[in-house]
C-alpha cells in the first residue's frame, strides 16, 4: 500500500477576495481567513465599513487584510478590485461570493421588478463577474477555490420571497456549471447554503420570533453564528479539499433534513 499522504490544511499565504465582508458571515470569514494566515481583500459597499473590519483584524496583530469599497452590482468596480488585489498580493487563490441582502416583495406587487433586478444583479450576476475577473489568477494557483454563498432558499422556497429564491437557486446552478467547466484545471467551485444565521440580514427579526422559528424548523433549535458558517467555508477552501467540487453544503442546523 502507498504511504499515507498528508495533505495541506493551511491557507497561509493564499489570497482571498471576500464580498460583503463588512458584516455577518463575510466579516467572520475575513477574520478567520486572516487568522489562518491568508491575505484577505475585505470588500463591501462602504469604504469606512471595510476599514473598520480591517482595523479589527489588525487589533489581533495581523497585517494581511486590505479594505476595498466594492458594490458587486458594478461590473467595472469588480474588475478594478480584482486587479488591485492581485497587484497587492501577487495573485488570487480564493473567491468568496458572499454579498447579499433581503428585499422580499411578493410576486405581482409594487416593487417586485426592482427587487428582482437587484437580487439577481447582486446575488447571482456578480458571482460570475467576480470569478470571470479573477480567473486568470485562479488559473495560476495550485489550489484555486471558488465559494458561492447561496442559502437554504436555494434548496427550497419560502413564500413572498421569489426573487431571492430564484437568485439562490441560480447560484447553485452556476456553481455546478463552474465546477464542471473548471474541473479539468483543478479549480473547485462549491456552494455554502446557510440556514438561519445571526447576521445583519436577520437582525430586525425579534428574538422571540427567531426562537419560535428555530424550535419549529431546525434540528439544533437555534440560529447559527456567522463564525459557524465561516469555519465550514474555511474547510472548503483548504488545499486539502481538492476533491470536493460542485456541491451545495447546507450549514443550517439541520433545517433541510428535519421533517418533524
Ligand atoms: P449581512 O447583512 O450581515 O451581510 C451582508 C453584507 O453584504 C453587508 O455588509 C452588505 O453591505 C453587503 N452587500 C449588500 N449589497 C451589496 C453590494 N451590492 N455589494 C457589495 N456588498 C453588498 O448578512 P449575511 O447574512 O452575513 O449575508 C451574507 C450572505 O449570506 C448573503 O448572500 C445572504 O443572502 C446569505 N444568507 C444569509 C442567511 C442568514 O440567515 N443570515 C441565510 C442564508 C443565506
From TrEMBL:
* Record-linked Pfam families: adh_short_C2
- Tell me the PROSITE patterns matching this sequence: ADH_SHORT
Q: Which CDD domains does the entry mention?
A: SDR_c
The record, for InterPro entries, names: NAD(P)-bd_dom_sf (IPR036291), Sc_DH/Rdtase_CS (IPR020904), SDR (IPR050259), SDR_fam (IPR002347)
A Gene Ontology BP annotation from the UniProt entry: monocarboxylic acid metabolic process
Q: Which domain of life is it from?
A: Bacteria
The text of the family note is:
Belongs to the short-chain dehydrogenases/reductases (SDR) family.
**Name of this chain's protein:** SDR family oxidoreductase
Species name: Pyruvatibacter mobilis
Q: Which taxonomic lineage is given here?
A: Bacteria, Pseudomonadati, Pseudomonadota, Alphaproteobacteria, Hyphomicrobiales
